Protein backbone atom coordinates (compact mmCIF):
# COMPACT_ATOMS: atom_id res chain seq x y z
CA UNK A 1 0.00 0.00 0.00
CA UNK A 2 2.98 2.29 0.51
CA UNK A 3 3.78 1.71 -3.16
CA UNK A 4 0.17 2.43 -4.22
CA UNK A 5 0.12 5.68 -2.26
CA UNK A 6 3.53 6.69 -3.58
CA UNK A 7 2.98 6.00 -7.28
CA UNK A 8 -0.75 6.03 -7.96
CA UNK A 9 -1.71 8.71 -5.44
CA UNK A 10 -5.32 7.56 -5.44
CA UNK A 11 -6.47 10.05 -2.84
CA UNK A 12 -10.27 10.00 -2.75
CA UNK A 13 -10.54 8.29 -6.14
CA UNK A 14 -12.10 4.86 -6.30
CA UNK A 15 -9.63 2.01 -6.75
CA UNK A 16 -9.31 -1.64 -5.82
CA UNK A 17 -6.40 -3.79 -4.69
CA UNK A 18 -7.05 -7.55 -4.76
CA UNK A 19 -4.73 -10.39 -3.80
CA UNK A 20 -4.11 -12.86 -6.62
CA UNK A 21 -3.52 -16.58 -6.23
CA UNK A 22 0.23 -17.07 -6.31
CA UNK A 23 2.60 -20.00 -6.37
CA UNK A 24 4.30 -21.83 -3.52
CA UNK A 25 6.96 -19.12 -3.08
CA UNK A 26 7.16 -16.26 -0.59
CA UNK A 27 6.17 -13.73 -3.27
CA UNK A 28 2.69 -12.24 -3.17
CA UNK A 29 0.74 -10.87 -6.12
CA UNK A 30 -1.85 -8.12 -6.22
CA UNK A 31 -3.98 -6.50 -8.94
CA UNK A 32 -4.45 -2.73 -8.75
CA UNK A 33 -7.48 -1.41 -10.65
CA UNK A 34 -8.03 2.34 -10.90
CA UNK A 35 -11.35 4.18 -11.12
CA UNK A 36 -10.80 4.37 -14.90
CA UNK A 37 -10.42 0.55 -14.99
CA UNK A 38 -6.70 0.60 -15.79
CA UNK A 39 -5.16 -2.42 -14.10
CA UNK A 40 -1.66 -3.52 -13.17
CA UNK A 41 -0.10 -6.43 -11.31
CA UNK A 42 2.20 -5.81 -8.36
CA UNK A 43 4.60 -8.58 -7.35
CA UNK A 44 5.59 -8.08 -3.73
CA UNK A 45 8.89 -9.69 -2.73
CA UNK A 46 9.54 -10.54 0.94
CA UNK A 47 12.78 -8.53 0.97
CA UNK A 48 14.09 -5.36 -0.72
CA UNK A 49 16.24 -5.84 -3.83
CA UNK A 50 18.77 -3.92 -5.87
CA UNK A 51 17.23 -3.21 -9.31
CA UNK A 52 20.71 -3.16 -10.85
CA UNK A 53 21.42 -6.80 -9.95
CA UNK A 54 17.86 -8.11 -9.69
CA UNK A 55 17.65 -11.65 -11.11
CA UNK A 56 14.05 -11.24 -12.34
CA UNK A 57 15.05 -8.17 -14.37
CA UNK A 58 18.11 -9.95 -15.80
CA UNK A 59 16.02 -12.89 -17.03
CA UNK A 60 13.39 -10.45 -18.28
CA UNK A 61 16.05 -8.75 -20.40
CA UNK A 62 17.12 -12.11 -21.84
CA UNK A 63 13.57 -13.14 -22.73
CA UNK A 64 12.54 -9.82 -24.23
CA UNK A 65 15.74 -9.74 -26.33
CA UNK A 66 14.73 -13.04 -27.98
CA UNK A 67 11.07 -11.99 -28.35
CA UNK A 68 9.58 -14.48 -25.93
CA UNK A 69 6.36 -12.75 -24.72
CA UNK A 70 6.47 -11.79 -21.03
CA UNK A 71 4.55 -9.20 -18.95
CA UNK A 72 6.17 -5.81 -19.43
CA UNK A 73 7.96 -4.41 -16.40
CA UNK A 74 6.58 -0.93 -15.78
CA UNK A 75 8.46 -0.07 -12.62
CA UNK A 76 10.88 -1.52 -10.06
CA UNK A 77 10.83 -0.23 -6.50
CA UNK A 78 13.68 -2.04 -4.80
CA UNK A 79 13.35 -0.53 -1.33
CA UNK A 80 9.74 -1.72 -1.12
CA UNK A 81 10.39 -5.01 -2.91
CA UNK A 82 7.79 -4.24 -5.59
CA UNK A 83 7.69 -5.07 -9.31
CA UNK A 84 4.92 -3.28 -11.20
CA UNK A 85 4.06 -5.12 -14.39
CA UNK A 86 1.57 -5.44 -17.20
CA UNK A 87 -1.68 -7.17 -16.31
CA UNK A 88 -2.12 -10.23 -18.55
CA UNK A 89 -5.61 -11.09 -17.30
CA UNK A 90 -6.65 -14.41 -15.81
CA UNK A 91 -6.57 -17.04 -18.57
CA UNK A 92 -3.80 -19.56 -17.95
CA UNK A 93 -2.92 -22.25 -20.45
CA UNK A 94 -4.26 -24.77 -17.93
CA UNK A 95 -7.69 -23.14 -17.99
CA UNK A 96 -7.65 -22.72 -21.77
CA UNK A 97 -6.90 -26.39 -22.37
CA UNK A 98 -9.94 -27.46 -20.32
CA UNK A 99 -12.39 -26.23 -22.96
CA UNK A 100 -10.30 -25.91 -26.12
CA UNK A 101 -11.00 -28.09 -29.16
CA UNK A 102 -8.28 -30.65 -30.06
CA UNK A 103 -6.86 -28.51 -32.86
CA UNK A 104 -6.68 -25.45 -30.60
CA UNK A 105 -5.03 -27.49 -27.84
CA UNK A 106 -2.38 -28.73 -30.25
CA UNK A 107 -1.69 -25.21 -31.53
CA UNK A 108 -1.22 -23.72 -28.07
CA UNK A 109 0.92 -26.54 -26.70
CA UNK A 110 3.14 -26.31 -29.77
CA UNK A 111 3.39 -22.56 -29.19
CA UNK A 112 4.52 -23.25 -25.64
CA UNK A 113 7.14 -25.69 -26.96
CA UNK A 114 8.33 -23.08 -29.46
CA UNK A 115 9.03 -20.75 -26.53
CA UNK A 116 11.12 -23.47 -24.85
CA UNK A 117 13.17 -23.91 -28.01
CA UNK A 118 13.75 -20.16 -28.25
CA UNK A 119 14.86 -19.96 -24.62
CA UNK A 120 17.27 -22.86 -25.08
CA UNK A 121 18.76 -21.97 -28.45
CA UNK A 122 18.82 -18.17 -28.32
CA UNK A 123 18.34 -17.36 -24.65
CA UNK A 124 21.30 -19.51 -23.60
CA UNK A 125 23.56 -17.28 -25.70
CA UNK A 126 22.16 -14.05 -24.19
CA UNK A 127 23.04 -14.78 -20.57
CA UNK A 128 25.84 -12.46 -19.50
CA UNK A 129 28.61 -13.78 -17.21
CA UNK A 130 27.66 -11.19 -14.57
CA UNK A 131 24.05 -12.39 -14.38
CA UNK A 132 23.07 -14.42 -11.31
CA UNK A 133 21.68 -17.20 -13.49
CA UNK A 134 25.10 -17.73 -15.08
CA UNK A 135 26.25 -19.57 -11.94
CA UNK A 136 23.04 -21.52 -11.21
CA UNK A 137 22.65 -25.06 -12.53
CA UNK A 138 20.96 -28.38 -11.95
CA UNK A 139 24.22 -30.01 -11.01
CA UNK A 140 24.68 -33.14 -8.88
CA UNK A 141 24.45 -31.16 -5.64
CA UNK A 142 21.19 -29.45 -6.63
CA UNK A 143 19.57 -32.64 -7.93
CA UNK A 144 20.56 -34.53 -4.77
CA UNK A 145 19.19 -31.73 -2.60
CA UNK A 146 15.83 -31.75 -4.38
CA UNK A 147 15.41 -35.51 -4.04
CA UNK A 148 16.44 -35.33 -0.37
CA UNK A 149 13.77 -32.62 -0.02
CA UNK A 150 11.23 -35.14 -1.35
CA UNK A 151 12.34 -37.82 1.08
CA UNK A 152 12.22 -35.44 4.03
CA UNK A 153 9.03 -33.49 3.43
CA UNK A 154 6.83 -35.92 1.55
CA UNK A 155 7.91 -39.27 2.99
CA UNK A 156 9.12 -38.50 6.51
CA UNK A 157 7.00 -35.48 7.46
CA UNK A 158 3.82 -35.77 5.42
CA UNK A 159 3.60 -39.58 5.20
CA UNK A 160 5.30 -40.25 8.56
CA UNK A 161 7.68 -42.96 7.35
CA UNK A 162 10.42 -44.45 9.45
CA UNK A 163 13.94 -45.07 8.13
CA UNK A 164 13.19 -48.76 7.51
CA UNK A 165 10.83 -47.74 4.71
CA UNK A 166 13.66 -46.17 2.70
CA UNK A 167 15.88 -49.19 2.00
CA UNK A 168 17.53 -48.59 -1.36
CA UNK A 169 15.63 -45.38 -2.05
CA UNK A 170 18.52 -42.98 -1.52
CA UNK A 171 20.73 -45.04 -3.84
CA UNK A 172 18.13 -44.95 -6.63
CA UNK A 173 17.59 -41.21 -6.15
CA UNK A 174 21.36 -40.78 -6.41
CA UNK A 175 21.38 -42.59 -9.76
CA UNK A 176 18.59 -40.36 -11.08
CA UNK A 177 20.48 -37.24 -10.01
CA UNK A 178 23.81 -38.48 -11.36
CA UNK A 179 22.50 -39.33 -14.82
CA UNK A 180 20.56 -36.08 -15.22
CA UNK A 181 23.30 -33.80 -13.88
CA UNK A 182 25.80 -35.26 -16.37
CA UNK A 183 23.73 -34.12 -19.38
CA UNK A 184 24.57 -31.01 -21.45
CA UNK A 185 22.86 -27.89 -20.07
CA UNK A 186 20.79 -25.11 -21.59
CA UNK A 187 18.92 -22.17 -20.10
CA UNK A 188 15.73 -23.39 -18.40
CA UNK A 189 12.74 -21.43 -17.13
CA UNK A 190 12.71 -23.82 -14.15
CA UNK A 191 8.93 -23.80 -13.55
CA UNK A 192 7.47 -24.00 -17.04
CA UNK A 193 4.05 -25.49 -16.35
CA UNK A 194 0.60 -24.64 -17.70
CA UNK A 195 -0.25 -22.28 -14.82
CA UNK A 196 2.80 -20.14 -15.65
CA UNK A 197 1.70 -19.54 -19.25
CA UNK A 198 -0.93 -16.86 -19.79
CA UNK A 199 -3.05 -16.38 -22.91
CA UNK A 200 -3.18 -12.65 -23.61
CA UNK A 201 -3.98 -10.91 -26.90
CA UNK A 202 -3.89 -14.27 -28.69
CA UNK A 203 -0.33 -15.09 -27.60
CA UNK A 204 1.08 -17.23 -24.83
CA UNK A 205 3.04 -15.14 -22.35
CA UNK A 206 5.59 -16.60 -19.93
CA UNK A 207 5.50 -15.60 -16.25
CA UNK A 208 7.37 -16.55 -13.04
CA UNK A 209 10.76 -16.96 -14.68
CA UNK A 210 12.82 -15.54 -11.80
CA UNK A 211 14.15 -18.97 -10.79
CA UNK A 212 15.73 -19.75 -14.17
CA UNK A 213 18.89 -21.83 -14.18
CA UNK A 214 20.92 -24.15 -16.44
CA UNK A 215 19.71 -27.71 -16.85
CA UNK A 216 18.96 -30.55 -19.28
CA UNK A 217 17.10 -29.83 -22.53
CA UNK A 218 14.22 -31.97 -21.26
CA UNK A 219 13.62 -29.96 -18.06
CA UNK A 220 11.07 -27.38 -19.20
CA UNK A 221 9.42 -29.87 -21.55
CA UNK A 222 8.87 -32.27 -18.65
CA UNK A 223 7.31 -29.42 -16.66
CA UNK A 224 5.02 -28.44 -19.52
CA UNK A 225 3.77 -31.90 -20.45
CA UNK A 226 3.69 -33.55 -17.03
CA UNK A 227 3.53 -31.11 -14.10
CA UNK A 228 -0.12 -30.07 -14.19
CA UNK A 229 -1.28 -31.33 -17.56
CA UNK A 230 -3.31 -34.47 -18.26
CA UNK A 231 -2.20 -35.70 -21.69
CA UNK A 232 -2.51 -39.14 -23.21
CA UNK A 233 0.62 -41.17 -23.92
CA UNK A 234 0.06 -40.60 -27.65
CA UNK A 235 -0.13 -36.83 -27.13
CA UNK A 236 3.07 -36.82 -25.07
CA UNK A 237 4.87 -38.79 -27.79
CA UNK A 238 3.57 -36.38 -30.44
CA UNK A 239 4.90 -33.35 -28.54
CA UNK A 240 8.21 -35.05 -27.82
CA UNK A 241 8.63 -35.60 -31.57
CA UNK A 242 7.68 -31.97 -32.26
CA UNK A 243 10.21 -30.71 -29.73
CA UNK A 244 13.04 -32.90 -31.01
CA UNK A 245 12.49 -31.71 -34.58
CA UNK A 246 12.16 -28.06 -33.56
CA UNK A 247 15.21 -28.12 -31.28
CA UNK A 248 17.28 -30.10 -33.82
CA UNK A 249 18.71 -32.25 -31.05
CA UNK A 250 21.77 -34.37 -31.75
CA UNK A 251 20.51 -37.15 -29.49
CA UNK A 252 18.69 -40.19 -30.80
CA UNK A 253 14.97 -40.51 -30.22
CA UNK A 254 15.51 -43.30 -27.68
CA UNK A 255 18.16 -41.35 -25.79
CA UNK A 256 15.98 -38.27 -25.51
CA UNK A 257 12.89 -40.22 -24.49
CA UNK A 258 14.86 -41.78 -21.63
CA UNK A 259 16.17 -38.37 -20.60
CA UNK A 260 12.64 -36.94 -20.69
CA UNK A 261 11.09 -39.66 -18.53
CA UNK A 262 13.99 -39.55 -16.07
CA UNK A 263 13.48 -35.79 -15.83
CA UNK A 264 9.76 -36.32 -15.24
CA UNK A 265 10.50 -38.63 -12.29
CA UNK A 266 12.98 -36.20 -10.72
CA UNK A 267 10.72 -33.18 -11.18
CA UNK A 268 7.56 -34.85 -9.90
CA UNK A 269 9.30 -36.27 -6.83
CA UNK A 270 10.61 -32.80 -6.04
CA UNK A 271 7.08 -31.43 -6.56
CA UNK A 272 5.73 -33.98 -4.08
CA UNK A 273 8.32 -32.74 -1.60
CA UNK A 274 7.07 -29.20 -2.11
CA UNK A 275 3.46 -30.28 -1.65
CA UNK A 276 4.39 -32.16 1.53
CA UNK A 277 6.22 -29.10 2.86
CA UNK A 278 3.25 -26.85 2.12
CA UNK A 279 0.82 -29.20 3.90
CA UNK A 280 2.93 -30.38 6.84
CA UNK A 281 5.00 -27.28 7.63
CA UNK A 282 2.85 -24.39 6.41
CA UNK A 283 -0.55 -26.11 6.84
CA UNK A 284 -1.50 -25.05 3.33
CA UNK A 285 -3.74 -28.02 2.58
CA UNK A 286 -4.74 -26.90 -0.91
CA UNK A 287 -1.59 -28.63 -2.23
CA UNK A 288 -2.84 -32.06 -1.18
CA UNK A 289 -5.09 -32.18 -4.25
CA UNK A 290 -2.07 -32.15 -6.58
CA UNK A 291 -0.43 -35.26 -5.08
CA UNK A 292 -2.40 -38.10 -6.77
CA UNK A 293 -1.89 -36.67 -10.27
CA UNK A 294 1.83 -36.23 -9.68
CA UNK A 295 2.15 -39.81 -8.42
CA UNK A 296 0.23 -41.17 -11.42
CA UNK A 297 2.31 -39.27 -13.98
CA UNK A 298 5.53 -40.31 -12.21
CA UNK A 299 4.43 -43.94 -12.39
CA UNK A 300 3.91 -43.74 -16.16
CA UNK A 301 7.52 -42.59 -16.58
CA UNK A 302 8.82 -45.21 -14.14
CA UNK A 303 7.03 -47.89 -16.18
CA UNK A 304 8.78 -46.59 -19.29
CA UNK A 305 12.22 -46.46 -17.67
CA UNK A 306 12.43 -49.61 -15.60
CA UNK A 307 15.48 -49.98 -13.36
CA UNK A 308 14.13 -48.09 -10.33
CA UNK A 309 12.17 -50.77 -8.44
CA UNK A 310 12.22 -49.09 -5.03
CA UNK A 311 10.88 -45.76 -6.30
CA UNK A 312 8.33 -47.60 -8.43
CA UNK A 313 7.05 -49.76 -5.58
CA UNK A 314 6.76 -46.71 -3.38
CA UNK A 315 4.74 -44.77 -5.98
CA UNK A 316 2.53 -47.78 -6.73
CA UNK A 317 1.87 -48.26 -3.03
CA UNK A 318 0.99 -44.60 -2.58
CA UNK A 319 -1.51 -44.75 -5.43
CA UNK A 320 -3.02 -47.89 -3.91
CA UNK A 321 -3.34 -46.14 -0.55
CA UNK A 322 -1.07 -48.61 1.22
CA UNK A 323 2.00 -46.59 2.17
CA UNK A 324 2.07 -45.43 5.76
CA UNK A 325 -1.11 -47.32 6.58
Give a quick set of tags describing it:
single chain, 325 residues, alpha+beta, Phosphorylase Kinase, domain 1, Aminoglycoside 3'-phosphotransferase, Chain: A, domain 2, 2 domains, five-stranded antiparallel sheet, two-stranded antiparallel ribbon, 11 helices, globular
Topology of helices and strands:
Blueprint lengths: L1 H6 L8 E5 L7 E6 L5 E6 L10 H11 L7 E5 L4 E5 L6 H7 L2 H25 L13 H19 L10 H13 L4 E3 L8 E4 L2 E4 L6 E3 L3 H9 L5 H15 L5 H28 L10 H15 L3 H12 L5
Antiparallel strand pairs: 1-2, 2-3, 3-5, 4-5, 6-9, 7-8
Helix pairs in contact: 4-8, 5-6, 5-9, 6-9, 7-9, 9-10, 10-11
Structural commentary:
It contains 11 helices and 9 strands. The chain is of the alpha+beta class. The strands form 3 sheets. A 5-stranded antiparallel β-sheet has the order 1-2-3-5-4, with no helix packed on it. Strands 6-9 form a two-stranded antiparallel ribbon.
Calculate the mean pLDDT score and round it.
93
CATH architecture of the largest domain: Alpha-Beta Complex
* Largest sheet report: 5 strands, antiparallel
The CATH homology group name of the largest domain: Aminoglycoside phosphotransferase (APH), C-terminal lobe
As laid out across the biggest beta sheet, the strand order is 1-2-3-5-4
In which range does the helix fraction lie? 40-55%
Amino- and carboxy-terminal Cα gap? 48 Å
Brief summary of the model shown:
The protein has 325 residues and is α+β, with helices and mostly antiparallel strands. It has helices at 2-7, 55-65, 93-99, 102-126, 140-158, 169-181, 219-227, 233-247, 253-280, 291-305, 309-320; strands spanning 16-20, 28-33, 39-44, 73-77, 82-86, 186-188, 197-200, 203-206, 213-215. A hairpin with a 2-residue loop joins β7 and β8 (203-206).
